[in-house]
Amino acid sequence: MTETSSEVVAIEFETPAGETLSFEWRADALAAIDAQAPPDEPVWRLGGELDWDAVERVRVLSARLGDGRVLGIAAILPAGAAGHGEELLAAVIGTDSTFEQLDQALLSTERVAEGPPQRVGLELYPHGAEIALRIAGDAVGVASSEHGGVGRTSIALALRSAAGEGAGILDLLTPH
After folding, report:
1. Which among 39, 76, 87, 147 is least surrounded, fewest beta carbons within 10 Å?
2. Domains, the chain
3. For the segment 162-174, what is each residue's pLDDT rounded down to a tens digit?
4. pLDDT at 111 over 90
5. Number of CB atoms found within 10 A of residue 126's CB
6. Phi–psi pair at 28, nearest 5 degrees
7. Using CA atoms, how far apart are residues 139 and 168, in angstroms rounded to an integer?
8. Following DSSP, what letter does each residue of 107-138 receive, concatenated?
9. What are the tens digits of pLDDT across the range 32-87?
10. What is the pLDDT of residue 5?
11. Contact status, residue 44 vs residue 151, Cβ threshold 8 Å
12. DSSP state of 85
């Protein structure tokens, strides 16, 4: 489910534990993303509480595309899942006043050894689209922090697509 207003967009999930969880972005914060370095605080807000016994990992991608649109993706990997094919994933794309939930979004990452992702690939399918909007991103900065037993690794991304150059932040949350 997606809720939108002129300032805020939210994606809601039912978690593996059966609780409602939401990820919320302010459109102006998405439009202001800079690819130089990850921010100290996420540009998104979590509504609800994660049950880390039922969740292995959370990925949140926040982006500003080259054509002025903004993008929010949230993915929850249930504990014990075989891979990211079992993630609960939802995505929205839009402008500062109009958003739509994507019919399908694929988020892949490429790592070097055990480090954070170095590259990101996206395939986004808006409602009714047969051809995906493809976006590639390269890591340009990484920061890590821990809050309340949850580790957050943030990767600043330089994005490129047919829509031009953009910027994004990929946040990875894991229990510590």
Report:
1. 147
2. 2-175 (2.40.370.10)
3. 989 999 999 999 9
4. no
5. 17
6. -70, -30
7. 9
8. EEEEESTTSSEEEEEEEEE-TT-SS-EEEEEE
9. 998 788 888 899 999 988 888 889 999 999 999 999 999 999 999 999 988 767 89
10. 47
11. no
12. G
